């Protein structure tokens, strides 16, 4: 009986969500000059503000040391998570825009575990460099913290 009730509630919730998703009006045609189309105003743009201001480009280098393979998650322009061969380096070009110019954006790398000299697992060493300057590290894997930095112009 409990499974039947759960199934019924799940189906009702799915039906409600699907009904709500299909209720948006379709565009009647091209927008008139001076009017924003509903889809353009709803999205608000992918990034930034209408002013179009951009900061200076930055080169961000994520590094994870060690040997063997490990899972690595890094956040730069987008979020990434993958199995990599160590040592590993990833370089991204980042340019702040819109509100990011005021508040900045966090870049980080979370290294997986590697076997230490005592045979115990420990975080792999990580560093972040911005425009050639090291801005974050986890003290060669001895810190419990991952590497993160608030990138600002």
Structure, briefly:
With 153 residues, the chain is of the alpha+beta class. The protein is built from three helices and eight strands.
Description:
It is a single chain. With 153 residues, this protein is an alpha+beta fold. The protein is 20% helix and 45% strand. The protein is built from three helices and eight strands; from the N terminus they run ααββαββββββ. Strands 1, 2, 3, 6, 7 and 8 form a six-stranded antiparallel β-sheet that branches. A two-stranded antiparallel ribbon has the order 4-5. β6 (126-130) and β7 (133-137) form a beta hairpin. It is elongated. Mean pLDDT is 78; it is low at 11-50.
Task: Encode the helix/strand succession as letters.
Answer: HHEEHEEEEEE
Overall average pLDDT:
78
Q: How many helix segments?
A: 3
The residue fraction in helices comes out at 10-25%
Question: What would the keywords be for this entry?
Answer:
153 residues; alpha+beta; six-stranded antiparallel β-sheet
Any chance you could write out the topology, listing elements then pairs?
Blueprint: H1 2-21, H2 38-43, E1 54-75, E2 79-97, H3 100-103, E3 105-111, E4 113-115, E5 121-123, E6 126-130, E7 133-137, E8 147-151
Antiparallel strand pairs: 1-2, 1-3, 1-6, 3-8, 4-5, 6-7
